Known about the structure:
Blueprint: E1 2-4, E2 9-14, E3 17-22, E4 27-32, E5 41-42, E6 48-54, E7 60-66, E8 72-76, E9 82-89, E10 92-98, E11 104-105, E12 111-112, E13 117-121, E14 127-131, E15 137-144, E16 147-155, E17 161-163, E18 167-170, H1 172-175, E19 181-189, H2 192-196, E20 205-213, E21 250-254, E22 257-262, H3 266-274, E23 278-281, E24 286-289, E25 295-303, E26 312-319
Antiparallel strand pairs: 1-2, 2-3, 3-4, 5-6, 6-7, 7-8, 9-10, 10-13, 11-12, 13-14, 15-16, 16-17, 16-18, 19-20, 21-22, 21-23, 23-24, 25-26
Amino acid sequence: xxxxxxxxxxxxxxxxxxxxxxxxxxxxxxxxxxxxxxxxxxxxxxxxxxxxxxxxxxxxxxxxxxxxxxxxxxxxxxxxxxxxxxxxxxxxxxxxxxxxxxxxxxxxxxxxxxxxxxxxxxxxxxxxxxxxxxxxxxxxxxxxxxxxxxxxxxxxxxxxxxxxxxxxxxxxxxxxxxxxxxxxxxxxxxxxxxxxxxxxxxxxxxxxxxxxxxxxxxxxxxxxxxxxxxxxxxxxxxxxxxxxxxxxxxxxxxxxxxxxxxxxxxxxxxxxxxxxxxxxxxxxxxxxxxxxxxxxxxxxxxxxxxxxxxxxxxxxxxxx
Length: 320
């Protein structure tokens, strides 16, 4: 997660914490700690985050922060209910409301947090949409563009939660919005031979142009083109985060992609070995590199030869 607001405050996820850094003063501050226990979610552009917290009476509340404006909203559960962060669709928060009585086990014997209601809260705090289907409980959601896919279960007479068909919500807010996007436009052009008159019947050439389609009309009078005249070195801008209980991160790279990211080197090394890659830590120090080391086996002795049968072979491996 990385986000820079208009006040030159930079937000980044580091280990199990989120920090805010003032790029002007180079001051850093812990914004959210132990995010692994708080079911953190953030919007696609990183401008909004939401996470869960436990109250003194062991109830769950949700905090939503607008990193651009600094505003914060708190969602509290009513009596005998719990809340769960499910994600974002655009700038709108998706969260679930569950009754502890609806909790149960699935066919594998695992406890399932089942929610009777799913709500969508707009960026200004207004209620955008809500979902509740009698006889069905929601266990999770998947967001695809302006569509929310709901994974559902049904409770049997014995209290077992079994899978049911998925349902969906089309976000009313997101459905009516368009975002800035790139579009390829085909443009016909006259060939040089046709322009010069050497070959008037020469076919027209087609050129692909990449254009930016804006969500709203652009006022040309307000557009500015800025070109830096000179770049000066202003000293070291390194910021050291004073993270608590910091854990080393290990990254496995293969074919220019990160194939594994863990707090332990075991899985990244395994992935690097299988994909002929390398492993570095969060200080960019090499931990493992799979090279092209060749080996050669040499038979040293045959033992236990009885009546022409060999019961053991001792082999020495040489690295060349």
